What we know:
Structural class: mainly alpha
Number of helices: 15
Largest sheet: 2 strands, antiparallel
Shape: elongated
Helix content: 55-70%
Oligomer: single chain
Strand order of the largest sheet: 1-2
Amino acid sequence: xxxxxxxxxxxxxxxxxxxxxxxxxxxxxxxxxxxxxxxxxxxxxxxxxxxxxxxxxxxxxxxxxxxxxxxxxxxxxxxxxxxxxxxxxxxxxxxxxxxxxxxxxxxxxxxxxxxxxxxxxxxxxxxxxxxxxxxxxxxxxxxxxxxxxxxxxxxxxxxxxxxxxxxxxxxxxxxxxxxxxxxxxxxxxxxxxxxxxxxxxxxxxxxxxxxxxxxxxxxxxxxxxxxxxxxxxxxxxxxxxxxxxxxxxxxxxxxxxxxxxxxxxxxxxxxxxxxxxxxxxxxxxxxxxxxxxxxxxxxxxxxxxxxxxxxxxxxxxxxxxxxxxxxxxxxxxxxxxxxxxxxxxxxxxxxxxxxxxxxxxxxxxxxxxxxxxxxxxxxxxxxxxxxxxxxxxxxxxxxxxxxxxxxxxxxxxxxxxxxxxxxxxx
Length: 426
């Protein structure tokens, strides 16, 4: 049999690396790890065969450099693909590849992906931007950079919001290159999902809109994967998160069940069981009325009603003037419609008492006074100079707001998994 040439061996290595990617992304049986190890071993054997042949036989020196750089890239990419977490071997070979050939776009893309797994997002951004400058028609570095940009910045800082806008633009740019690319639709759905979970400043209507758009993008990605003969479990994991934000727990549970059918090792069964137990517990508490008796509920409601909506004005604190002219405040003990308070005043309020006059006149409030106070809006209560209860004009009732995990497929390990764990792949 004729000995294959170096070019033919390189093509075979590239084919086997793509096959390794297919196993990592779309093979979900129990022997997945052993198959990955077998394929990786075959790739390394082929690479060693190619490296044993002298480069540049009958070719120019520049072609020799390109082939050597591509071989280093394929070795690094294979190490990056078969590990869920960061691979030091992948970084070493990919760094050598881009140093040998700075124009190798694929090597810059894979190196950026490796740095993202390492959680070095700034280096990942630089590598991916370099890849896009070399080839703006490749959607993969655009998708990866969109994920990386969403992770740069703190909390709700202006930098974070600016990077979120850049991420959306990059996702749309990748989608515009090929509307039939299922990964681009999947990443687009993740962009809408992450918009809601990261910014945390949206209204309820905006949150619902983002989640509905995410679900539509996931549906389109699922359809396109089906045309290629694949099922992608991460779509169902992220779809469940969108349903959960919409409080559609039936939809979320069905999505987790579907994910578990596709990939029994994705962890969806644990999420399904956890939420099923939670919903069962809530339903039981509602059915049993939290095991509270009617008298207990009634007493609790009366306490809440009295503390939140008082029927009578707050306790009066009439001003008392001492002989030396200093003012003090005394508080009535019974806040009834006719409030009686003691004060050491004379014939007129605010005047010092006459010597020897120790009588304490009663200060009463009429029904009209009570109605005036009771008709005022509830709010922040202060005491005015006369001791009467009043409500600040700018007081307003406070309102609460509710705040609201997922995998990103190819870009897992790049900051989008809610549980912080990276997942497969390129």
